[in-house]
Amino acid sequence: MTSSKELVSGYYNKLLKRNAGEPEFHQAVAEVLDSLKIVLEKDPHYADYGLIQRLCEPERQIIFRVPWISDNNNVHVNRGFRVQFNSALGPYKGGLRFHPSVNLGIIKFLGFEQIFKNSLTGLPIGGGKGGSDFDPKGRSDAEIMRFCQSFMTELYRHIGEYRDVPAGDIGVGGREIGYLFGQYRRLTVQHESGVLTGKGLTWGGSLVRTEATGYGAVYFTNEMMRTHGESLDGAKVIVSGSGNVAIYAMEKAQELGATVVGFSDSSGWVSTPNGVDIQLLKDIKDNRRERVSQYVKETTGATFNADGTIWSLEADVALPCATQNELNGEHAQMLVDNGVKYVAEGANMPSTPEAIEIFRKSGVHFAPGKAANAGGVATSALEMQQNASRDSWSFEYTDQRLHKIMSNIFQRCDQTAKEYDREGDYVIGANIAGFKKVADAMLAQGVI
Ligand code: NDP
Known about the structure:
Distance between the termini: 27 Å
Number of strands: 12
Low-confidence stretches: none
Strand content: 15-25%
Largest sheet: 7 strands, mixed
CATH architecture of the domain at 212-363: 3-Layer(aba) Sandwich
Order of helices and strands: HHHEEEHEHEHHEHEEHHEEHEHEHHHH
Shape: globular
Helix content: 40-55%
Radius of gyration: 21 Å
CATH topology of the domain at 212-363: Rossmann fold
CATH class of the domain at 212-363: Alpha Beta
Bound molecules: NADPH dihydro-nicotinamide-adenine-dinucleotide phosphate
Strand order of the largest sheet: 9-8-7-6-10-11-12
Mean pLDDT: 97
C-alpha cells in the first residue's frame, strides 16, 4: 500500500511539472502538503476522489490585458489576473495586488493560501486572489484612476456579490478600491455594495476593515503569548513594512503596552528604540505617500538604515508585515540570537521554509500568516454581512467580533495541533484545521 508520504510526494512532483516556473506557488503548496501527511495517515479518505489534486488546481484562472494612458500620453500595457481558486465554502474572496513583481505564480500562491485562511475564519468564504504587474509608485492620482478603470473594465464580468468579492492587498488601498468600485457601478448600472470590500465608510464600507489585518495579527500574537504565560505588555516588537498591515499592527501593539523598536519599507529600515509615533507615520505614508527615511527627519531618537536588515534588532516579538520571503534563514538565526521568542506573520508567507525550520528548532513560537493575518479577510466578510443586511455596525462591536474571531482561530490551531500530537506547532494546526473544513465540503459536493 502507498504510504501517505509517497502519496503526497507523488502529488507534489506532478504539481511541479504542471506549474513550472512558479516557485512561490510550489512553496505554499509544499508547506500545506507536508502538514497533510499526518492527516492522510489518520484519515486516508481525504485522498479519495482526487481531493488533493483538485484542491491544488484553481477552479478558474483569468488573465487579461490592461491598457492605459499615462499623463504624458504614453500607452502602457499591463497584465491583470484573477485566480478563482476554491468556492466550496462560499464566494471567492481575496485581495488584489498591484506591484511590479506580480505574475501568475504569485497570484496562485496567494489564492491557495487564501483557501485555508478563509476556512479558518469560520465564515462562508471561498479563496481567490488577483492583481496586476502595474507599479503604482510615483503615479499621479489620475493615472491610478485610469489604470483602475481599465482593470475593472475586464474584471467586472467575473465578479459579484455571490460570485467573487475582491478587496485590497499590496498597492491597493482605499483610493484604488474607490476607483474600482466606481467603474464597476458604471459598467453594471447598479450599486452592488457587496462586490468589493475595503470600501469608504459612506458607501458601504465597514468600520475596522482598515485596521483589521494589523489589529488581528496582534490579537493573535497576544493570545499565543498568553498561552505561554506572557503578553505584549512591556514587550519589544519589530514590525517590518509600513503599509496598511504594518501600521495597524504597530498601533495595536503599542496600545497593548509594547514598544515597537523598528519598521521598514523597500528603501530601508528605521530603528525606533523609544517606540513609534503612529500619527506621524500615518501622515507620512498615507497622506503624503513618502518614504520611511522622512520619519527620522521629523522626530528624535530614530535612525534610518539603507543597508543591513531590520531583523538584526533586539526584541521579544517579530511581526513580518511587508511581503513574501522577506525573512530568510540567516535573518531567523539573527532573531533567535537576539532573543526573539514569538514570530507572527502579518504578511503572506514572509518567512522562507529555512526560517520556519530555525524557529521550530529553536523553540520560537511561530504563527503562520494564514492564521495570524486572517483578521483582514474576516472583517471583509463582516463588511459583506453589513452590506447584505443594509446595516452598519459600530467600531466597538466590529472590533469585538474581530477579536473573538482571532481568538477562535488561535484556539482552533492550538487544539488541532494537539489532536495530531504536535502541540504548539501552529503551522500544522492552521494547515490541518483549514484543510479539513474545505475538504469535507468538497467531498460532500462531489467531483466538480
Ligand atoms: P501595503 O502596500 O499597504 O504595504 C506593503 C508594505 O510592504 C510597504 O511598506 C512596502 O514598502 C513593503 N514592501 C512591499 N513589497 C516589498 C518588497 N519587495 N521588499 C520590501 N518591502 C516591501 O500592503 P499591505 O500592508 O496591505 O500588505 C502587506 C502584506 O500583508 C502582504 O503580504 C499582503 O499580502 C498581506 N496581507 C494584507 C492584507 C490586507 O488586508 N491589506 C490581509 C492579509 C494579508 P514600499 O512602499 O517601499 O513598497
